[in-house]
Design goal:
The structure is a homodimer of 342-residue chains. Chain A has 342 residues and is of the alpha/beta class. Chain A has 13 helices and 11 strands. In chain A, strands 2-1-3-4-5 form a 5-stranded parallel β-sheet, sandwiched between helices. Chain A has a 4-stranded parallel β-sheet with strand order 7-6-8-9, sandwiched between helices. A two-stranded antiparallel sheet of chain A has the order 10-11. Chains A and B meet through helix 4, helix 5, helix 6, strand 2 and helix 7 of A and helix 4, helix 5, helix 6, strand 2 and helix 11 of B. Chain A binds a DNA duplex (30 and 30 nucleotides) through helix 2 and helix 4.
Chain lengths: 342, 342
DNA sequence: TCCCACCACTAAACCGGTTTAGTGACGAGC
DNA sequence: GCTCGTCACTAAACCGGTTTAGTGGTGGGA
């Protein structure tokens, strides 16, 4: 009943365990028919090398880590991670690696988790997400000697390579779309400016407005949550001169904002155009359906995993090109109203 | 630079490596002051036992597995897993275990993944989610000798223990709430009847109607997706005698259904009451806000992890009581219209 | 005083692979 | 005929812990 070991296979095939190992990792020094005999014996006994033993002898864990330091509530509605992980997984499975996932309270941004993973030698490298503007995790990882790949736009100054689509062009496309519809007062409800993807979207929004020769519209900093999206929207609609269009940093805030507008009797898109970011499943099924930006998150996961594997296995890695974010126009955006909403 | 090993610590403390191991796993046979000296030496050298080496010598992986066999698209909007995993994680971290996550295409329900995890000895046990009515994974896991805990309602007949709140009472509460509002034609848009949590919700709905002395309302089988929720709703509203209330098996379908109703000019809740299940973050921020059912998913994750740990460590495990699902009444449900919608 | 039990600790085996050093057989070259 | 190199393989060390068997010293009881 107990799993066979390499010794059992060696004995059954009448060779030394070294030979079995050689045959399995097809290295030279084993005659073709001996190799075949060994592999066939192993197959018939149902033997697969124990990753525990392998990990110890090759001094690697054969596992990568992903630490998500966030309160689970904000994770519940995040459309990013499942797809991202699926992409990561598809690469790791092929390479014989496993993914270790930790979801921890946001307290210390997961520092303790990273430290533990490194000290215990649980993983050979980690993926770094949700990067903050002055994130000290890269330094921490450099200190404990854990290779990492930053998931998100490349900041240039980083210790580690970054993989990710720049979200700027997506926001730019949204703004250009709205400008094309005649809007001149385009607001932005952003994520926390302490977070990289909060800041980069805001920057792109501001830059696109400037490029179009428009005044910067009103900006409200929120935190990607529905609650914050709703109150930001209330705030915007209460302005003396409310914007005719709002670009939200994610779908969740946009959807909550849409509900607020509807509840106040503001016609969308007649009086107010609304755009999100993420292309959540629900976005297409709202009333009106939400104009938003879609990204190839699975491909992103694949790219990040590939890059990190190259890093831990000390391979040279090719630069991957990811599909840029793509604007999806739906019913929540329309021509600017003839005169400002009253 | 390279991590110290137990040998380095032993040498530095002037003892054998066995003594260091004893001190760390506080077993008898080490004098208190010797123990203190060893621990202090280890601390000052920053030594932590390598989980690779530990795993090999104790013949356990010190890791549990979670395989999610679903297309990532349907996972994107699933509010369950992040919270669930957070709960699991909180227990595992304390016990020194790690969580191995695999998200794989739905092809073979993850059979290959389970087999691989077992053969390679990657994990000591797995959590089984998304159980199908005639699921063969329990048999597979029994065959490969991998302990498991089924996440979901206990079916009684299973090979392995099950942990999870019964979702029946939640649906029952929704139906009773609607009956109390005077509804007599209450429809259900369910999940796939091939899935346990699809079937159990439908059964609860039918039973609650019968208990209230009502005719079974119309039922549409869907697949938990927004798309399916929308078309099911269209179908229901097209009936000669449309229902005055619809109970959806999850929030996503309910929200899509709500949008369909609004688009058709059906007043919610004036002409049609709508209820979901999950208490998604967005539910409270729709217009009208969605009546739904909330569950303590984090506690659920904790309970499942605890149970599985007890199983792999061969401990007796106490039966945990989970908070039952709780009805959250919001604006999408209201008194039944005086006469059927026309 | 001698014996025994017990305590604190060490030496070595073990987990199951990978990897290095070494060995015997065989053929080629001078 | 002897040496050398190569091939196919084996024996043993090694990864870094845990665990078992064994050992020396001390105290108590007869």
């Amino acid at each position: 009943m107990t799993r066979p070991t390499i010794n059992d296979v060696a004995r059954a095939a009448g060779v030394s365990k070294g030979a079995v190992s050689f045959a399995f990792n097809n290295r030279p020094g084993i005659a073709p028919d001996t190799r075949d005999r060994i592999l066939e014996t192993a197959r018939s006994m149902g033997w697969t090398p124990s990753s525990r033993a392998r990990a110890l002898s090759v001094s690697r864990s054969l596992a990568l880590g992903l630490v998500i330091a966030r309160p689970p509530e904000t994770l519940r509605s995040d459309p990013f991670f499942p797809s991202f992980i699926a992409g990561v997984e598809s690469v790791l499975a092929e390479a014989g690696y496993a993914l270790l996932l930790q979801i921890v309270p946001a307290d210390d941004a997961g520092h303790a988790s990273y430290r533990r993973l490194a000290e215990q030698g649980r993983v050979d490298g980690v993926l770094l997400t949700d990067l903050h503007v002055d994130d000290d995790r890269p330094a921490l990882l450099a200190e404990v000697g854990l290779p990492a790949v930053i998931v998100g736009p490349d900041l240039g100054e980083a210790f580690w390579p970054a993989v990710g689509v720049d979200d700027g062009p997506g926001i730019t496309a949204v703004v250009e779309h709205l400008v094309g519809l005649g809007h001149t007062s385009i607001a932005h409800v952003g994520g926390p400016s302490a977070m990289v993807h909060g800041r980069s979207r805001r920057t792109a929004w501001a830059a696109a407005l400037e490029a179009a020769g428009l005044e910067p519209g009103p900006f409200v900093e929120a935190d990607f949550s529905a609650e914050a999206g709703a109150s930001a929207t209330t705030h915007l609609l209460d302005l003396a001169e409310p914007p005719t269009a709002v670009v939200y940093a994610n779908d969740l805030m946009a959807m909550a904002g849409l509900a607020v507008a509807v509840a106040r009797g503001v016609d969308v898109p007649g009086q107010l155009s609304i755009a999100g970011y993420d292309d959540t499943e629900l976005a297409a099924h709202l009333q009106p359906p939400l104009t938003t930006v879609t990204t190839d998150v699975i491909g992103w996961g694949r790219a990040a995993a590939t890059r990190l594997l190259d890093l831990v296995e000390q391979r040279q890695s090719a630069d991957v090109r990811l599909d840029p974010p793509r604007l999806v126009v739906r019913g929540s955006t329309g021509p600017a109203p003839a005169r400002p909403t009253t």
